[in-house]
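ok trying again, last paste got cut off:
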Amino acid sequence: MTTALAILGFVTVVAMVVLIMAKKLSPTVALIIIPIITGIIASFFIVTDPENAPGVVNVMANIKALGGYITGAKGIGSVAATGVMFIFSILFFGILTDAGTFRPIIKGITGLMGSDPVKVAIGTAILAMIVHLDGSGAVTFLICVPPLVPLYDALGMRRTTLASIVALSAGTMNILPWGGPTIRAATAFTMEVNDLFRPVLPAVLVGLVAVLAIAFLLGSAEKRRIGDVKSTAAKYVEAELTDEQKALLRPKLFWVNICLIILAIVSLLFSGFAPAVVFMFFYVLATLINYPNVKETKARVDAHAKSALMMCSVLFAAGCFTGIMKGTGMITQMATALTSLIPASMGKFFPVITGVISMPASLLFDPDSFYYGVLPVLGQTAAGFGVEAVNVGRAAILGQMTTGFPVSPLTPATFLLLGLAGVDLGEHQKKTIPLAFCVTIVMLLVALVTGGIRI
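nice, full thing came through this time. structure:
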């Protein structure tokens, strides 16, 4: 029976990954329907009451138990707080974006870049890091790339350099606690996202420094190639806003909103409050300060509701998946099967192995199928060798759909970046993948040295 559960578990994961990658099912649908089907099949192999009736299988009782697995502490109950956090983080950063908080920063950075390719490259990295505070790759690319393309063209800098620097900056910043991969990893291990992220913060900071160093090297290479070009044609041109967008701007509240962002980040890292509570509080502050009128408040919620709903629907669907996989015992049996295949001498290095393959795994797995399907199995396998599963999660977020997301063909944001920059996918991957892999390895080494990841 245990073998049957392991096989069903692998079938569930493989079917989900294949159907999502082949775009036969949306992540939300796949995360719900596939585990329900395999959960029903698993009901024929689960001993219902092993203590009082060993060896007895009550199929109907097992099927009825699926509902509890889905809604219980191992299922939707484990992701409820994360869903709340994501809703209010989207609303918080959305309101600050609507208020124009990031526009002066963008204009200032592009103004400081001048015509030195090295300064332009470093400024590009800093700009992308700041903009990606909202955790959205699409927003980062839309804000950063269009105003910089004319500057790169006028200086004779290659657009592949622009795409690479923006990709590396956004990818490394995507590890932040409100980034999709980190939220998914925390959800998969049913833990607070801060508990997962905080130990690897030093590694992420070093990773950001590594990105700046790479930007310096790329800028220096461009400078050697094209010489010291003086550009008069390339100037920052502020995008024309609609009347509605202009009405939302709050330039007099710029420093107030900057303080809100800083306080929110500090609170997330050091206050001890759950991230959901932090973003709920700062969303209220941002709303009352920028749009106190009830009609305006409702309009801002409506404007960002689609993004919040889409992500939360996937999170709750993931709760269904993890609840059934854990409740039926399928994930435990899968880990047992994998453990038996890995040499005992390699078991303690499982987090390191995960960290090394995490960035390339972005080319094979979309974030939902990896973090909700593959990562729990890897974590359970590591636990079988006496290594805390959370170390595998921390290793995974250093590359899988973080540094790896802007080069993956499985993410729409990648093609948005390429379209805006006018760069071919193959050229972009050839240049950026080795750099992204290097950033991941640097962060992995720092995490091992600082104890963020323990083996």
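cool. The chain has a mean pLDDT of 84. The chain is about 75% helix and 0% strand.
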